[in-house]
Amino acid sequence: MAERCDLFKQNPASGRVRGPRIKICEITSRRDIEFCTQIGVDALGFLVGHEKLGLDGGVQGHRLSIKREKALVGAVSNQISSVLLIHQTSAEDMLALCRAI
């Protein structure tokens, strides 16, 4: 098991988290999510794009299809924020992507 990163200590008096917050990007699998959950990250970043699969069926690179993205974001614990990294430039395209996921 990975060692938990305890830089993030909650102040019992205020309830606020002290220390840096950590976001890990390029999440492409449930295994990535499980690992990040174990080490105590605050947020996970997902990049939507044209997905490429290897011969073993695994994702090559870090861009995921909307379908895979939706499944992975749904697997993230409520204690961890999911961040969608997008390259769309119009507000309409951004909103459509967010609604799809």
Question: How would you summarize what this structure contains?
Answer:
GO terms for molecular function: isomerase activity. The chain is an alpha/beta fold and 101 residues long.
What does this structure look like?
The chain has helices at residues 30-39, 66-74, 91-100, and strands at residues 9-10, 17-18, 23-24, 43-48, 52-53, 59-60, 63-64, 81-85. Helix 1 links the parallel strand 3 and strand 4 (43-48). The longest helix is centred in the middle third of the chain and has 10 residues, at 30-39. It has three helices and eight strands. With 101 residues, the protein is of the alpha/beta class.
Within the CATH hierarchy, at the fold level, what is the topology?
TIM Barrel
β-strand number: 8
Find the structural class using helix and strand composition.
Answer: alpha/beta
Shape, principal axes of CA atoms: globular
Radius of gyration: 15 Å
Mean pLDDT: 78
How many helices? The count is: 3
Q: The biggest beta sheet, please?
A: 4 strands, parallel
Strand coverage percent: 15-25%
> Can you write the helix and strand succession as a string?
EEEHEEEEHEH
For CATH, the homologous superfamily is named as Aldolase class I
Annotated CATH architecture: Alpha-Beta Barrel
Please report the distance between the alpha carbons of the first and last residues. 30 Å
The count of domains is 1
Oligomer: single chain
Unreliable residue stretches: none
CATH class wording? Alpha Beta
Q: Determine the fraction of residues in helical runs and give it as a percent range.
A: 25-40%
